[in-house]
Amino acid sequence: MQLCQSKMPARDGVLEMGRARSLTIPPVDNIRNTDINPYLVRPTSFEIRPSTNLNVTRPPTLNPITPLQKRVRNQFEATHTSDPIVNHVNKSSFMPEQSFDRIENKDASISKIHQLPNQHPGLISSNQQNHGQAPQLQFFPSQDPTPSQFSPGSSLQLHDASISTAMSNPLHGIQFPSPVQSFANNPFIRYTSLISSLMSQGVISLANQLPAQDSIGTEFNPDILKVRHESPANALYRDLPRQCKTCGLRFRCQEKHSSHMDWHVTKNRMSKSCKQKPSRKWFASLKLWLSGAEALGTESVPHFLATESIDYEERKDHEEFAVPTEEDQSTCALCGESFDEFYSDEMEEWMYRGAAYLNAPARKTSAGMDRSQLGPIIHAKCRSDSNLQCANEEDTRRKRMRS
Amino acid sequence: MAYGGAGPVGGSGSASTIKQVKLERESELRIEVGNDAPLRLRLLNGTAEIFGTELPPEIWLNFPPRLKFAVFTWYGATIEMDGATETDYTADETPMVSYVNVHAVLDGRRSRAKASSPDDSGSSQGPRVIVVGPTDSGKSTLSRMLLSWAAKQGWKPTFVDLDIGQGSITIPGCIAATPIEMPIDPVEGIPLEMPLVYYYGHATPSNNVELYKVLVKELAGMIERQFTGNAESRASGMVINTMGWIEGVGYDLLLHAIRTFKANVVLVLGQEKLCSMLKDVLKSEPKVDVVKLQRSGGVVSRNAKVRQKARSYRIREYFYGLSNDLSPHSNIANFSDLFVYRVGGGPQAPRSALPIGAEPAADPTRVVPVNINRDLLHLVLAVSFAKEPDEIISSNVAGFIYVTDVDIQRKKITYLAPSAGELPSKYLIMGSLTWLET
């Protein structure tokens, strides 16, 4: 009950301070606008305090920090624009005793932020605290603070201000147990912040913490080159403990070793699936070499081979069209170009490569049909696109029937 | 990979030809496989490597006839061999310590390049190594070691082969480049999966020095473009293998290559005079290290006849594979479907013997059309990626064909191609490389 009653005079004091300011402030619009902000914040802070006293639980104790931080920032901003107001308030002498104590607290906070000379010689403890914190304040500007770094600093000042308030007002100390708990976390926060700041600036790097390998340097010194050092051979053997038992390749970590074993499996599978002898492929074009050399890796080898294999099959399918050579016709009836002749071991006669009869069904052989019904000889590729699609469809059907 | 299964069971009744060799630390077993039969070899215990590629434990490897190689061990090993060898012996004095120290320095430079900002093209460039020296000094072998060690540690260096007489990447007569992403197989050699190949057409640069220079410049330009777009490749750097011609015009071509590829590490093998000359001429170049290295005693000398045969085997390998595991295709084309060109060279006809207005073929880089006739028989022609004839000299090639027959009456040419189907291009480049399929 006493605590609740003590709240009432404080509110009255706030109202009285407001009146006092209005009496002393000149009628300037800018000053009035800035003056309104403090009033909007204070009622909120007062409303939270009763709940803090009534409910002694952890979640409520965290709430007061936010409005207090806002107050500190507002004071910081207000001070820049309304220093004359503070001076006027200090000069007034008709304040109640409790209101005067609150004014002293505010002065202490302001002096800590700006390191202003203390106008109240009687507050010896405030002087000591202010002096002790000066080096810390100087620490942050030297780091060229960013918004993310300012927040920890503000928090630090806030906690110190709270402690100062507790010392000045023993009765109010009971109302601020949480700042003490928050203070314990400050060293960790500052340490993390410092490390992050230094890393972002490139001053230090976690990589630098790795132990430097024993190296014989990057210069060709004849005396060094002649002598045996353990590090070069160790780097090729003992520093790579995992070895592939199939091909002898060594690895440092399990991941690369596993992917290499997968590469062996894929390679073996490809060589087994290819029943007939493979052929040497044509070299890559310059364009492919400039781009493919980058993509070509240990894991990419099967992919590259698979891609080439697909292209090879497509070309081979087209080349399977062939008809026996004829003296009466050596050029395509559609495009007029000459046919390529080759000797087919299977048919045991000379053939036109990639050729078909115009009237023949879209299949590779024309067995069973009379020559007079087939029409002239053409390139299979010279058929229309729709015919090509029919040919592909028939090939697909035949393959399905086989499988 | 030419890996065999488990070895035969040691039956008590059969005469076993298996031989075991125990190698002390830092020693190597030097082997020349016989001419007629392959050799099987495996690592029994310890660790060992062949030219920078480590042997898998207890896996039999099959080495084809005539192959020459060395098995080296850093910590000691026991090797088992099955089959006859032309010769095999153990050596305990090798330059391997200095070779691997060179690798360690290069590895340090690669790490430094990788750690630097990708925006700084200078510092993010890995070492650009060129290996020089006289013939049979072990240039190809040292190149393979440096490439395999780098790949073993996760780098992806670019191998550049300027030796047109040997053909480390593909057939002789070519200069080529390829990324090396895994240690080089001790049997198969450089993998032929993603090469960039320019066709010079001859086994010695004296046929057309200017053409050789143009192709070297073209190849270097393309590698520079690749480095620009690939930070990992750029940090890994390059290893350049060169010809053994180090005097006169050969020396000039060596300097041309060093400057064109902007090499900053010059490894000189077994030649005091060459090392001294290069140090003197390159001392004005900023940040170029000239390092003298000892030649390995295991390098085998090869005479002209051996080289010629090696070239034939290499061409055959292109079409059929090292162990006859590839299937080439025979094709027939009309004369009118193909266009064969020659680049410069050849004897110059006096202007009085030419038709009025005709120019003699004096320009060594001029592209000259060639009539298809019996002269093309048994020639190896390159299939150019050029879209127009004048692009032939600046275009890479898609592969090669081998002319097996020329029918003048029917105007048809029969050729062997690596794979079936149409040629990637109708423009073919003629050189002086011939092959008699046996």
From TrEMBL, chain A:
Cellular component GO terms held in the UniProt record: cytoplasm; mRNA cleavage factor complex
GO MF: mRNA binding; RNA polymerase II complex binding
Domain of life: Eukaryota
An individual GO BP term: termination of RNA polymerase II transcription
Domain named C2H2-type: residues: 244-264
Pfam family, one: zf_PCFS4
InterPro entries assigned to the protein according to its UniProt record, in alphabetical order: PCF11-like, PCFS4-like, Znf_C2H2_type
Biased composition range(s): Polar residues: 124-157
Region spans: Disordered: 117-157
Ranges annotated as spanning the membrane: none
UniProt-recorded name of the protein: C2H2-type domain-containing protein
Automatic annotation (TrEMBL), chain B:
Domain Clp1 P-loop positions: 133-321
Record-level GO BP terms: mRNA 3'-end processing; tRNA splicing, via endonucleolytic cleavage and ligation
Record-linked SUPFAM superfamilies: P-loop containing nucleoside triphosphate hydrolases
Family in the record: Belongs to the Clp1 family. Clp1 subfamily.
Location of the Clp1 C-terminal domain: 326-437
Positions that bind ATP: 28, 68, 136-141
Clp1 N-terminal domain ranges (all copies): 22-113
Region Disordered, residue ranges: 110-139
Cellular component aspect of the GO annotation: mRNA cleavage factor complex
UniProt KW keywords: ATP-binding, mRNA processing, Nucleotide-binding, Nucleus
Native source organism of the sequence: Glycine soja
UniProt entry tagged with the keyword Nucleus: yes
Protein name per the record: Protein CLP1 homolog
Nucleus as UniProt keyword: yes
PANTHER family per UniProt: CLEAVAGE/POLYADENYLATION FACTOR IA SUBUNIT CLP1P, POLYRIBONUCLEOTIDE 5'-HYDROXYL-KINASE CLP1
HAMAP family: Clp1
One Pfam family matching this protein: CLP1_N
Protein's job: Required for endonucleolytic cleavage during polyadenylation-dependent pre-mRNA 3'-end formation.
GO molecular function: ATP binding; polynucleotide 5'-hydroxyl-kinase activity
Compartments where located: Nucleus
Annotated Low complexity bias: 116-127
